[in-house]
Design goal:
The structure holds 2 protein chains of 2 kinds. By secondary structure, chain A is α+β, with helices and mostly antiparallel strands. Chain A is elongated. Chain B has a 12-stranded antiparallel β-sheet with strand order 1-8-9-10-11-12-2-3-4-5-6-7. The chains are: A alpha+beta, B alpha+beta.
Chain lengths: 773, 227
């Protein structure tokens, strides 16, 4: 129901939907994998602790495919899987040697002889009669390993690091890592397990990582922040309402639009998206401070006491202003939905519907339920707007406008010069420090794993996919030798294509069945094999292979677990597999592979998304400029050139100030900061419009000003809380809007004033109007 | 005259002799073993064995000639080889086969390395294969007289005196049992023969002779152990 996956916010990056889907499948598989490292100074203790952990994991219903101890049966099964194909399997070195049948054959025979003579031959002479040249042990010994640092000790995958022995256990999560229900069961289970282990084995260190941990933390943080922002905003409104209106009726009534608006937003989002992301809720909770605005305007206007009993004209009086305000705000929120990011569209829809709901509640319900507050109320409450206006009039606070103007100008110039864009998606994902530290410890032991760069190999069927991957491997070998990549790993190293299996067989046959007597025969006679054994081996090698190792059979045996996730399986176009890359130094060469070879796609998730974010940031910037121009046009149309310009000044300065704030703070801007400017415009313009309208009706000035100030307070509170969020997306929105609206609020009296000497007169008129009412 | 040519001449003379003596030698070993493995002992209670251990411990560097006979079940004939052997207490074991082909086999706590004239043939690090770790430990403990270590890994059996002894070893741990069923050592002032019976039914018998305890490791020898 509620999503907490940040990647769900982002749109598809691949232009090719098949590739996108394949990557999703892979991400899912990878996401389900959990890794445990049990470390101890004594290797034996580490293994005992690992045994216990393995038992516990197997016993729990939350984990499946637990891979810990490779018992002899598993090793045996692995060996037996390859055994029927032993004359079809060759390591890369062996294959290269056999390109020259004479030399290669000689070396093969010598190698086997020496192995048999050495005191250690017991290690692999198990099936000597059926594998006289020890081909299978040689092949298995040279199999590529996913992690160079892991070795097998007593059946456990072990690595040594910093004086400790670490034993590896992997397990798959039985459930969705992003499901709250799963998180709430698995996390306590893991914590209890860790405590148990630490008590039973003092000095033991348990490191673990898995998507579920990050997802649980993300969800928890999101929930905490939603309540902080929500409760904070509500508390702020509560205090303000009580202070201003001193009675409970407005308080209760005031929350009605907020609540109804939020409910409407939730329902709408569920209907359209069927799942709501927690980040939408986080952002949506800041809506509380904005949707209360219309209620404020209603109460403040009502408190003027002009409406007679039974005929409430409050609504008709404020309707033009608040409907225009609502319209611009909603348009501002909808501007966020311009980028085709599912997450942003959700946020835009949620906020727009929420505001609309609040607005509708005010205009339809308030006339029925609201009663004007005490007569004397406004007189007391006037002090706030009076103080506020004084800021801008010359006389009292000498030179304040000038000083303020200079400071702002300086701030903006400094900030804009300093600010830099940063579109890297990694900025948007901030794992908690303790999880990050654990991840780094694990990487120190196992070596860093790069899960964001791959080569996707596609083919019509399994065979073509494997053949293409084999050809790719050769190129990647070269790349590795040239230092363009550090390492690569694909399943074709563990499972050759049929074509290659046939070729291997041919190479062996040509090398060993050449000459009279054949090299094989000479070797076997020399070593003293029985005649039947020799004959059988010659027959076997002479006949073309009948059975071949296939992907399906390989996947079926548990020895394939470490690499099984690289086989993506069926796609609409055929079959696909992945080759993992690490230490990529030359991305251009890899991207080039995509063009030179068929069926190969280079995927660099981080770069792709970051590029997308950059493109949309630039587009958003253009749209923001456009919308400001349009608004400017409208204002000029309504108020004339000069007044229109002055009316436009606050929002423009606000926007520049908001961006400059990032520069001054040393933070970098991205798509979300730019999108937040729509909000700055949409909400900030309200103050300007209200002020301009109030100028036309001086009698309503006090009430309007009060309403503006109250609205601004709650809005600033809400977005201020948002700016404190740990999630970068919310934080960027919060800072931009906070800075922007703060500045818009300070500057909005300009909208009602003329420049220069006229300001004084205008200000006096305003103050006089205030005193009157 | 240098070592290798001396050994070459010795081994060509010795080889045919071995062929002749072999049946007798092997036969003798079989019969004796049954009796040996009926008497398990503990080092703490066996001062003679302790003494033997001390004697062996006193030798930090041992050079010898070896003759090896491997009886592999699948093969009708035993595999015979001979060469030079070097044991350095803190380094490892250096096994240079000279007949029937030249081959170097180096065993240290870090792992195994087999090297032939063309270059490296294979290498197994002790971290990768636990069995290797075990094997290396056994050999090192055997030659350095580390009877305590041996007792950890094996059940011990003993016969004879401190100048003419036979030690039997049966692995305690499952992982070693998979490869070795039992080991018999014979010797007087040094270990003179080692006899492995492997779980697969294969059997390796090694005989040492021409012992020399001279001096320290040469520079070249020292280098061989670092890999």
């Amino acid at each position: 129901m509620f999503d907490s996956d940040i990647l769900a916010l982002l749109p598809a990056t691949e232009k090719d939907p098949v590739v996108e889907r394949a990557m999703d499948v892979f991400a899912e598989k990878l996401g389900q994998k959990n890794l445990f490292l049990i470390g101890h100074e004594d290797a034996q203790t580490a293994r005992e602790a690992a045994s216990k952990l393995e038992r516990q994991l197997r016993g729990s219903s939350w984990f499946k495919d637990v891979q810990g101890h490779l018992d002899e049966n598993l090793e045996r099964a692995f060996y037996e899987f390859y055994f029927p194909f032993r004359y079809q399997l060759l390591s890369r070195t062996a294959r290269t040697n056999l390109q020259q049948p004479d030399q290669g054959g000689k070396r093969l025979v010598e190698q086997a002889e020496k192995a048999l003579y050495s005191p250690m031959s017991g290690v692999f002479s198990g099936n000597l009669e059926q594998d006289p040249l020890l081909l299978l042990p040689m092949f298995l010994k040279d199999l590529p390993k996913p992690s160079g640092k892991l070795g097998l000790q007593e059946g456990w995958l072990t690595a040594k690091s910093g004086g400790k022995h670490y034993v590896l256990i992997t397990a798959s999560l039985a459930g969705n890592a992003f499901s709250r229900a799963t998180q709430q069961r698995v996390m306590p289970f893991l914590r209890t397990l860790e405590l148990e282990m630490e008590t039973a084995f003092p000095g033991m260190l348990l490191l673990s990582t898995g998507l579920v941990k990050y997802a649980a933390d993300g969800a928890q943080t999101a929930q905490k922040e939603i309540s902080t922002i929500g409760l904070g905003s509500i508390a702020g409104i509560f205090v303000l309402m009580l202070a201003m209106f001193a009675s409970f009726r407005p308080l209760l009534l005031g929350f009605a639009p907020v609540v109804i608006g939020l409910l409407a937003a939730l329902v709408c989002c569920f209907a359209v998206f069927s799942r709501i992301h927690l980040i939408t809720l986080g952002f949506g909770s800041s809506l509380i401070g904005v949707s209360i605005d219309y209620a404020f305007h209603y109460f403040c206007e009502q408190s003027r006491g002009e409406s007679e009993v039974g005929k409430d004209t409050t609504l008709s009086t404020i309707f033009p202003a608040i409907s225009l305000g609502a319209l611009t705000s909603i348009l501002g929120y909808m501007g966020m939905g311009l980028a085709p990011f599912p997450g942003l569209r959700q946020m835009a829809l949620f906020s727009s519907v929420g505001l609309l709901g609040a607005f509708a509640t005010v205009i339809f319900c308030f006339p029925w339920f609201s009663k004007p507050p005490t007569k004397g109320f406004l007189r007391q409450a006037k002090r706030l707007p009076q103080w506020y206006l004084r800021l801008w009039s010359p006389g009292r606070l000498k030179g304040f406008p000038l000083f303020f103007g200079l400071f702002t100008a300086g701030f903006i110039v400094f900030g804009l010069l300093r600010v830099r864009p940063n579109d890297d998606i990694r900025q948007l994902q901030t794992p908690p420090p303790d999880l990050l530290a654990e991840q780094q410890k694990i990487e120190a032991v196992l070596g860093a794993a790069d899960h964001s760069r791959f080569l996707l190999v596609e083919g019509r069927d399994q065979e073509q996919t494997l053949i293409r991957e084999e050809a790719l491997n050769q190129v990647l070998e070269e790349f590795r030798n040239q230092g363009k990549i550090a390492a690569f790993f694909g399943i074709s190293g563990l499972l050759p294509s049929r074509q290659r299996q046939r070729r291997n067989h041919e190479l062996l046959r040509d090398a060993l069945l050449a000459g009279t007597p054949t090299r094989l025969e000479a070797y076997m006679n020399r070593m003293g094999f029985k005649t039947e054994t020799t004959a059988a081996a010659i027959a076997r090698l002479g006949a073309p292979p009948e059975r071949f190792a296939t992907v399906a059979s390989w996947l079926a045996q548990t020895g394939s677990q470490p690499a099984a996730h690289l086989w993506l399986g069926a796609t609409p176009r055929g079959q696909a597999s992945l080759v993992m890359l690490s230490g990529v130094a030359d991305t251009a060469a890899l991207a080039d592979l995509e063009h030179r070879r068929e069926g190969i796609h280079y995927i660099d998730k981080v770069a792709d998304i970051s590029l997308l974010l950059k493109r949309y940031r630039i587009q958003a910037t253009r749209l923001v400029l456009l919308s400001y121009l349009i608004i400017f046009g409208l204002l000029v149309f309504r108020y004339g050139r000069l007044r229109g310009f002055l009316a436009m000044l606050p929002p423009v300065v606000a926007a520049l100030f908001a961006i400059a704030t990032f520069g001054v703070l040393g933070r970098e801007i991205n798509l979300f900061s730019m999108l937040a400017l729509f909000l700055v415009l949409g909400i900030g313009i309200d103050y300007t419009i209200f002020f301009a309208e109030a100028h036309h009706h001086p009698g309503r000035l006090a009430a309007t000003l009060l309403a503006i100030l109250l609205s601004a307070c709650t809005t600033l509170l809400s977005f201020g809380l948002l700016a404190l969020s740990r999630m970068p997306v919310l934080r960027d929105f919060g800072i931009t809007v906070l800075a922007g609206i703060g500045m818009a609020l300070l500057l909005c009296p300009l909208a009602g004033a003329f420049s220069g000497p006229v300001a004084g007169r205008q200000g006096r008129i305003m103050r006089a109007a205030l005193e009157e009412s | 005259m240098n070592n290798s040519s001396f050994l070459r001449r010795t081994s060509t003379r010795v080889c045919p002799l071995i062929f002749c003596c072999l049946p007798l030698w092997a036969f003798q070993a079989e019969r004796g073993d049954e009796r040996l493995f009926q008497n398990p002992i503990q080092i703490g209670q066996n001062p003679v064995l302790q003494e033997v251990g001390q004697t062996l411990k006193a030798i930090p560097i041992l050079r010898a000639a070896f003759e090896q006979q491997k009886n592999i079940r699948a093969l009708r004939r035993p595999l015979l080889s001979s060469g030079r052997f070097l044991f350095a207490k803190n380094k490892g074991i250096y096994w240079q086969t000279l007949e029937p082909f030249e081959n170097f086999f180096i065993m240290t706590p870090a792992g195994l390395l087999q090297r032939s004239e063309e270059g490296e043939t294979f290498r197994i690090s002790a971290d990768e294969q636990p069995v290797v770790h075990g094997f290396v430990n056994i050999f090192m403990s055997l030659f350095s007289g580390d009877t305590d270590r041996l007792e950890e890994q094996f059940e011990l059996f003993f016969e004879g005196t401190s100048t003419d002894w036979t030690i039997g070893l049966k692995p305690r741990r499952r992982i070693m049992k998979k490869f070795v069923t039992r080991i018999v050592l014979r010797g007087n002032r040094h270990i003179e023969s080692v006899d492995f019976l492997e779980a697969s039914g294969d059997r390796t018998q090694i005989r040492f002779s021409s012992f020399g305890k001279d001096g320290a490791l040469t520079e070249e020898e020292r280098r061989q152990f670092d890999f």
